[in-house]
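step: validate -> pass
step: tokenize input -> pass
step: predict -> running
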Amino acid sequence: MACARVDPIAPPHAPLNAMHQSSYDLMRRFRDQHLSSREAEALQILDYGSLDVNGSFRPIFDAPSWTYVGMDRESGRNVDVVVTEPYHWSAFPTRSFDVVVSGQALEHTELFWRTADELDRILKPGGLCCLLVPSSGPEHRYPVDCWRFYPDGLRALALYAGLEPIDVATSWEDGPYTDSSNLWHDSRLIARKPRRPLLHETLRDVRRFIRTRI
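step: predict -> pass
step: emit ->
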């Protein structure tokens, strides 16, 4: 899975990561368990870090009623929108997506908590996110490699962003894979944005605006 390159000083053509099979399988499971009953709904789905280097999540979200939008920091295959500011996705209005997904991007994101702020901003009330990140594996700078995540860390991220965790876990055991999947032992966060009172939501918007611009 290509990562979203969010380092503002990164070279413009740094190499991007490739998706491994366990990541694809986990995203497919998310779709089957949480979205399969909603194929008739006109869902807006954003893929954060979507550049297709060795496959993409787009086929998973191919229901006729759904709109899949691939977003990354550079143009290329499977990228519909290129963002110019790493932690402010001005191309997307507030509360505009029903689902946000991402695979193997946050470990390359220096200030990943600010990404979580944007994720909360663009999700509609009741919207879902699915974030897949490694818990282990060797350094693979892309162009930076900053983080590994355990379940408690993902719960903390959800708490920071004001999201309600639904499923948080790490694939600790090796799976039946012949590619690099077993190096990474993927962690996952599936969470929902709560339906907050309008005043509460407005106050969160103000607080998020202040803390992301200072």
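step: describe -> The longest strand covers residues 123-134.
step: cleanup -> pass
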